[in-house]
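Batch job 17 of 40 flagged for manual review because the log was empty.
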Amino acid sequence: MIYFDAAATSFQKPASVGRAVAEAMAAMSSPGRGGYPTAQMADRTLVECREELAQLFQVPDPESVVFTSNATHGLNIAIRSLVKPGSRVVLSGYEHNAVTRPLYAIPGVKLHVVNTPLFQPEEMLRGFSKLITADTTAVVCTHVSNVFGYVLPIGEISALCRERGVPLIVDASQSAGILPVDFAAWQAAFVAMPGHKGLYGPQGTGVLLCGVPTEPLLRGGTGSNSKEQEMPEFLPDRLEAGTHNMPGVAGLLAGVRFVRKLGIQRIRDHEWRLKEQLLAFLEGRQDFRVYGCHDEALQAGVLSFAPVEGDCESLCDRLAEEGFALRSGFHCAPFAHRTAGTIQGGTIRFSASAFNSQRETSALCHALGRGGTTKTRGEKFTIS
C-alpha cells in the first residue's frame, strides 16, 4: 500500500515510536500514583514529553502542556472553558466538525462565520476584522484546512484578537509538527492538536496548550489533592483526570523527538515538493478539478482534487484497489466544502508525510492518468 492519508493519521511511524510503546507496556505503571520504579519511570516520561512539547511550541511553562486523547478532546475542553449559552463566537469557514459540533451543542450560541475564498488571506483578515466586535466571546480558527491545506493567516488573526481583547482558540491539527506553532507569539487562550498526525505519535494521544484558566471536561482522580472533592486548580492536573495513556505518551515523546531531530522545515519542504509534483500533473489535465496553490505561504502539503466526470468515491475506491490510500468525501469538514464550493460531491484528498517519496507520487500520477487525456492548461483553482 502507498499511503497518502497523513492528514487523517500518519500511518507510517518512526521505528522509535513502536519501541517506546512496547517498552512502556513492559516497564511503566501509572504516574503520580507511587514511589516505586515503574511509577517513577512513568513520571519521568510524562515530564520529558511535556518539556519536549513546550520547547517545540514555545510554551513558557511546561505545566501548561496538557495531555488529551486527541485534538477533539482538547477542542472540547477549550470551547467549554470559554463559550457559554448565548455567547457570540467568530470562526473561519474552514473549521472541522471537532470545532463546529461542540459549538452547536451549546444552547443559544451565535456563530459568525468568515466565509472567504481559498488562498485569499487578505480577504479573510478583512472578514475577521469586521466580525470581531466588543461583544465577541471567543474566536476559533484552524491553522491549516484539513481539506485543502490552506494555511490561514493565524499570526495576523491572533494579533487582531489581542488588539480587541478577545480570546483565541487555535486548531493546530494539520500544522503541529509541519509548520511553526508559536504559542508564546500568538498568545492564544488554547491551542489543540493531535499526537497521531504530524507529531508521529500513536492514535489516542493529543495535546492542549493552555493560556487561560480552564474548565475541566472530565473529573476524577489525579494523584494530587486527593482529600478534596473539587478538581485541583493548577495545571496540568486540573485537566488530566484518570490514568494516563502511558504507552501513548511514551510513543508521542519518541515522535516529537523524531520531528525535532529531522526539523519542521525539512518535513515541510518534503511534503510541499510531493504536493507540487501532484499539482503539476493535475494542472495539465482536463479531467480533474484541482484546488491548489503554488505559494508555499498559503498551502501545506495537502491537496484536494475531484474528477470532472464521475464521483470522488468511485475513483478513490479504484485507487484503493490499486494499492493507494487516499480519502474521499467531506473529511468531517462540511463548513470547508461549503466555503470552497465543493459541498455537492466533496473531493479526494492527497496528504503526504515524511515517509512518502517522489517515486510513490509518480506512481499515483500514473494511476490517475490511465485512460485520460492531457492538455496544456487544466481546469483548476491555483494561484501562482
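Reviewer: the log was empty due to a logging misconfiguration, but the result itself is present. The radius of gyration is 21 Å. Unflagging and moving on to job 18.
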